[in-house]
Amino acid sequence: MNFVIAIEPGTLHTAFGVVVPDLPGCFSAGDSLDEAIQNAREAIDLHCQTLIEDGGALPAVSALSVVQADPDFIGWIWAVVEVPIERYLGPAEKINITLPRLLLARVDDYARAHGETRSGLLARAVQQVMAQ
Asked: Residue 78 class from Cβ within 10 Å (0-12 exposed, 13-18 middle, 19+ buried)?
């Protein structure tokens, strides 16, 4: 799954800070930009593992353009990182479903625009509905 991260630039005296806007409370840091990004992947992985094990649902993934508009992150560096959290949900199983062609096209367009797969988007949608 892809996650947008916001990176607060470091200085000679401070580390690069990382926030994951779609995962409240998930943050990290690193002495270099590369280290900050790697540490963010680890933080996202652990955060999602805990959410899933506690029976929670993963929040919706926002498009980069949406989180970039947040005034709290003006001047920050943006990146998208892939974190394979699906392993915490158990092995994948194939299913056969029927959807109207136009709806399926909208699902595919939405998933692509948000850096997701069709299956990932549908699985996340089901989790959110069941969490209500």
From this structure: middle
